[in-house]
């Protein structure tokens, strides 16, 4: 029996671990390494992915495609895959608003493919103790969930409706990442007003230390969170709810985008200095 071939787009910090988890099912997991960076290649090698060269070849060889990329690229990736004549199962695993997910689903299914909605909650799933879950929805979601059985990534089917998995991701990140943006802004405001020491005294040592660590630790991913905040804002707007908080959160993360991919978290004073700069 021929093994299932899974095409992964793209092996970033999260995507590489998803590809590795899918490979535990015995599937052949490929990626398109043409013109990709040395860092991306290193992540793909760690995940034991097979370099098929080009996106065109990936679309031709894969039975299933897992799209795990920054939110802004989700549509471009889907359109390219559809135009390449892919006819398998396309899993949209990006942090995007449900209306956008359904729009992409329409493009994919019109081209003759099957669509599954996915939302990843948690960090890179290299080990089971990461506690990462891949929420899935859509009629074909159980087929994708089976790929991850026994892997470090727990796949959970929550609905047969396209958009449900994306909605859950948006609701969860609205608090976890949104609260980080809020705390960053509060610290920046207090520092500007000259009352940061007083605020931190009122907070107490434990909460202050936790807040500093939370804010600093997320700066390396702030460039990606900015787009996610805009997707969350769009999700709120689609439900006729105020979207302004998460649009502001997007701006907060944009101001911190200069810390992209730094190995060590910056000092809190460096973070606050970056926040004071206008884009």
Quick recap of the structure?
This protein is of the alpha/beta class. Helices cover 52% and strands 14% of the residues.
Descriptors:
279 residues; Rossmann fold; alpha/beta; 8 strands; N-(1-d-carboxylethyl)-l-norvaline Dehydrogenase, domain 2
Question: Please, could you describe this protein's structure?
Answer:
Helix 4 runs parallel beside helix 5 and helix 7 crosses helix 10. By secondary structure, the protein is an alpha/beta fold. It is built from twelve helices and eight strands. Helix 4 (about 75-85) links the parallel strand 4 and strand 5 (about 90). It has an eight-stranded mixed beta sheet with strand order 3-2-1-4-5-6-7-8, sandwiched between helices. It has two domains: about 5-160, Rossmann fold (3-Layer(aba) Sandwich), CATH 3.40.50; about 170-275, N-(1-d-carboxylethyl)-l-norvaline Dehydrogenase, domain 2, CATH 1.10.1040.
Q: How much helix is in the residues?
A: 40-55%
Residue runs with pLDDT of under 50 for 5 or more positions: none
Class of the largest domain in CATH?
Answer: Alpha Beta
Number of alpha- plus pi-helical segments: 12
Mind telling me which CATH architecture of the largest domain this is? 3-Layer(aba) Sandwich
Beta-strand content estimate: 5-15%
Spatial gap, N to C terminus: 55 Å
**Arrangement of strands in the largest sheet:** 3-2-1-4-5-6-7-8
The mean pLDDT is 95
What is the CATH superfamily label of the largest domain? NAD(P)-binding Rossmann-like Domain
- Structural class by helix and strand composition: alpha/beta
Strands, count = 8
Report the oligomer: single chain
Main sheet overview: 8 strands, mixed
